[in-house]
Amino acid sequence: MKILLTGCSGQLGRELKRSLASLGELVACDRHQLDLAKPEALRDAVRTIAPTVIVNAAAYTAVDQAESEPQVADLINAVAPGILAEEAQRLGARLIHYSTDYVFDGSKPAPYSEDDIPKPLAAYGRSKHVGELAIAAAGCSHLIFRTSWVYGLHGANFMKTMLRLGRRSCETGDELRVIGDQFGAPTWTRHLADATALVVARPDAPSGLYHLAAAGETNWHDYAAAIFAEAQRAGLTEKRPVLHRITSADYPLPALRPTNSRLDCSRFLRDFDLALPDWRTGLIDCLADARF
Questions:
Q1: How many Å from the N-terminal Cα to the C-terminal Cα in the chain?
Q2: Which CATH number characterizes residue 64's domain?
């Protein structure tokens, strides 16, 4: 098996580089080696490498910035996945791709299933949805994993931002204001990468779209509270900041976010007999490995 991994220096890519290494020949490329914003160079690189599996962990994830540069988000999140899918079809390769809960508008009162119709609220979600459609249209063997609230030890994410802001709040005595009316499941990159490796190792894995996120649910405020509690327990911080629960309306951002980002992952469990652990388990284990 020859695996091409894109985005290997990102927060998910670094975990995938570890989890995929034992499965065969791994060609791991970062943005400088393989820039998804350069379509023809991307196509040429895939043809030269000629992988049997492509794992696309590269993405444009600056949700608010995408509002001011939607063309860049589209190029990386929509055009590039389509090219990867076309080349996978030509090579007879399988494509693994990651999408997002932000393809939904959050108005559903229950967790979203794969059968729910996407209605993205902002440019980032729209670009990811178009990427999903491009992959499906190419006709290659593929797996698209929609996930949510991804975090890990590498890269920029909510957990690391909270730890940084929390230390500052403890020094200044200021409250930390965190949104409490958006709900989802924080998903550890290691759990996502390990599940991906198990699927890649299965030659009989089906094609299609799957929701793959941590079990359980929380909101940003309670997630932040859990981060500080577990960080203190792990000896990473001495004190916890004072948290103040606010609404999305209290903290307007350029891009709208769905209030409900909960994903129903029962289809993945049914087809792969596998489920990610509860979000709190992931957080505890992640912080136990942290050296911030």
A1: 36
A2: 3.40.50.720
Asked whether residue 158 is domain-assigned, the answer is: no
Residue with tokens 């023809």: 40
| Residue 223 covered by a domain | no
Q: And the tokens for 219?
A: 């909101």
Q: What backbone torsions phi and psi does residue 112 show, to the nearest 5 degrees? A: -80, 135
Mean pLDDT of 222-250: 94
* Number of structural domains found in the chain: 1
Give the residue numbers spanning the domain of 59.
2-153+186-217+261-278
Q: Give per-residue pLDDT as tens, 50-107.
A: 999 999 999 999 999 999 999 999 999 999 999 999 999 999 999 999 999 999 999 9
Give residues with Cβ within 8 angstroms of 233, minimum separation 6: none
3-state helix/strand/coil string of 235-254: CCCCCCCCEEEECHHHCCCC
Residue 173 lies in a domain: no
Q: Any catalytic annotation for residue 124? A: yes
164 inside domain: no
Active-site choice (112, 124, 151, 223)? 124
State how far the Cα of 269 lies from the Cα of 226, in Å rounded to an integer.
Answer: 26
